[in-house]
Write a structure and sequence with these properties.
The structure is a single chain. This protein has one domain: 3-Layer(aba) Sandwich (Undecaprenyl pyrophosphate synthetase), CATH 3.40.1180. Helix 5 links the parallel strand 3 and strand 4. With 250 residues, the chain is of the alpha/beta class. The chain is built from eight helices and six strands. The chain is globular, with a radius of gyration of 19 Å. The longest helix is centred in the middle third of the chain and has 24 residues.
């Protein structure tokens, strides 16, 4: 890509129609380890490079007028990875939050974390709480980070919370609606994604946003996450704008 092309991508490309952009984009950031292996580097270097790719995507969404971005940072299944890698990821999350918070505040980003946060290290929980508190009044792009997140776990905990309210007489069974159920999910108050992007060519949801993706569009690219840049995002959005979203209608 030429310098001119890179510069042009800081503004919304002319072939994208603002009224047809997704309001909410979600990403499964797959391929960090494979990227590092291809470069002859340790896996942790792939995760570091992946953070840079995510930061640029967040700024791109902000530049192009996309209202919300949700990133799958750490799944409930990722605890099965080697302990050294898990420890590095927890330290990486904490360090990125501490380093980037001031800039997020200045850029009017509202940060949220979704998932079972109580299982995370206490020091990371503290950084998460601080980042959400300091950005809660921001009204720019909403950036949600799915950490220790699992779609099945999310649905189960919502069912348990609703069942407890029914048992206590707070809620009647016939009062349980989609809206009530959604209010008990980790993502309560966050609109469903219009577009889910998955990198590295894998064609599965991997337990991510199972309820929320009922009508979301899915875009798969063979590009590994650390190489996912604005040009790749541009291609994903072009593909999205070619689709007809009928939501069951004719």
């Amino acid at each position: 890509m030429t310098i001119q092309q890179q510069t042009e991508l800081y503004e919304l490309p002319l072939d994208l129609k603002p009224e047809l952009l997704p309001k909410h984009v979600a990403v499964i950031m797959d391929g960090n380890g494979r990227w590092a292996k291809r470069q002859g580097l340790p896996r942790i270097m792939g995760h570091k490079r992946g953070v840079d790719a995510l930061k640029d995507l967040l700024r791109c969404c902000k530049d192009w007028g996309i209202q919300a971005l949700t990133a799958y940072a750490f799944s409930t299944e990722n605890w099965k990875r080697p302990q050294e890698e898990v420890d590095f990821l927890m330290t990486l999350f904490q360090g990125v939050l501490r380093q980037e918070l001031r800039e997020m505040v200045e850029e009017n980003v509202q940060i949220q974390f979704v998932g079972n946060l109580e299982a995370l290290p206490r020091s990371l929980q503290a950084e998460i709480s601080r980042s959400m508190e300091e950005t809660k009044n921001n009204r720019g792009i909403r950036f949600s980070v799915a950490t220790n997140y699992g779609g099945r776990q999310e649905i189960l905990q919502a069912c348990r919370a609703i069942a407890q309210k029914v048992q206590q007489g707070i809620l009647k069974p016939d009062e349980i609606s989609e809206e009530v159920f959604e209010g008990h999910l980790y993502t309560a108050g966050i609109a469903d994604p219009d577009l889910l992007i998955r990198t590295s060519g894998e064609m599965r949801l991997s337990n991510f946003l199972l309820w929320q993706m009922a009508y979301g569009e899915i875009y798969i690219t063979d590009t590994l996450w650390p190489d996912f840049d604005r040009a790749e995002f541009h291609r994903a959005l072009c593909a999205y704008q070619q689709r007809e979203r009928r939501f069951g209608k004719i």
